[in-house]
Amino acid sequence: MTSEGRTGIRGEIKGPGGKGPGLKRALRALKHREFAIFWSGALASNTGTWIQNMTVPYVLYQITESAFWVGFATFAQFVPQMVLGPLGGSIADRSDRRKVLIITQAAMAVAAFALWGAWVLEFRQLPVILGLLTLSGTIGGLNIPSWQAFVNDLVPLDDLISAITLNSVQFNASRAIGPAIAGMILAWAGPGWAFMANGLSFLFVLGALAVVKPRPTRPKASPRMAVMKGFAEAIRYSRTQPGILIGMAIAVLVASLGNPVQQFTVVFAVSEFDVGALGLAMLNVTLGIGAVAAFFAVSGWDDRLSRATMTRWSMLVYALAIISFAVSPNFETALVSLMFVGGGFLAVISISNTSLQIIVADHIRGRVMALRIMAFSGSYPLGALIQGWVADRIGVRMTVGGAGTILLLFTLVVTRNANWLPRLDDPHDESEPVPAQR
After folding, report:
1. Sites in the chain below the pLDDT cut of 70
2. N or C: which end of the chain has fewer CB within 10 A?
3. Backbone torsions φ then ψ of 330, nearest 5 degrees
């Protein structure tokens, strides 16, 4: 790779994708066959995941009529991802990521079909649903670090910004498509068919993984390194990279304060607006639509605006949109607010994740990504659990509004410090792994 393909002082990546902002520049990663195939399979699979993600809170709220148990379901699904982060990151750095993804995606498909089977056989008790969600989250803990790092294996560094952003876009596009499908299925066929759709969706990503050929361009960690020793190395490494620390801090804020708003759409739909399954679908669809719209707003501008600048304004919009959703007087206003919530989430998460992926050295990428995933996966369920508990006591509107207000205050503090956000534009670390001592 030529020097022109490396990051500059502000962290922008120059390459053959074209100069200046625009759709062509934003979509340039799709010109690579392997990434395009993987992206398409992931879009189909994540659409199925979002069908289930909307169905589970819907059925749990009907069964329990409690926001706490809706939040606890998120806790049960994401905590295993945090606990298994060190092992997942070690596997991502030491193993063939494509093979890891095939195995873990197949196992997650089995868990999805098990949830479908439990529902159609009328094993619909709360412990059964939570147990299967925990199983899926456990497998996900081994899958996600390899998934995040695998994107880097499919494109050259020149097109990494486009690939990472498009990876976030397919996730959020599925958040628009999946709930729309789920709403129709729930209204006309019932939860069993929604759970089956998720199981079948894994066939698409497994098919994509069967044919893609990743780029063999990265050094691997020593296979002799113990899991916890390797993870401790990732922690020490991250402490030397302020840009990575800032990116992780932003992920924690978004996950704990902002992201739980997703679980409360079912409470707003049923208890606040009385719009049923189709209304719930519309609320979740607008989250995805806002995210896709944000992609066109922020992508392709990486050679004009610093990542610090884009993050600063995105966090401000995100916090204000959450507050607006909390005080929405009617369903229509809530839809508009959620579009900005979805857009703000996509912008903040994709930009901070892009910064981390650009800054981190290749030899430790999987473990650092696991650390970032642990930060997000630990903060999200904890925030969801706490906000669910609080919502049962003071109401969902005050809970969401309070979380948005705290996020806004943190945003103002972070953006006022001139030494923090600019570190998101730090350049790529070219260091090599230290040889293991004999």
Report:
1. 1-23, 25, 172, 176, 216-227, 298-303, 432-438
2. C
3. -150, 175
What type of residue is 161? I
Which tokens is 27 given?
A: 């979509």
> What residue type is 267 in one-letter code?
V
| Contact residues for 424 (Cβ-Cβ < 8 A; gap 6+) | 11, 243, 246, 247, 306, 307, 308, 311, 351, 352, 355
Token pair, residue 339, equals 């579009």
Instruction: Give the max Cα distance, the chain.
Output: 67
Q: How many residues does the chain have?
A: 438
Q: 428: closest CA among 357, 374, 364, 335?
A: 357
Token pair 């260091």: residue: 431
pLDDT digit string (tens) for 116-137? 999 999 898 889 999 999 999 8
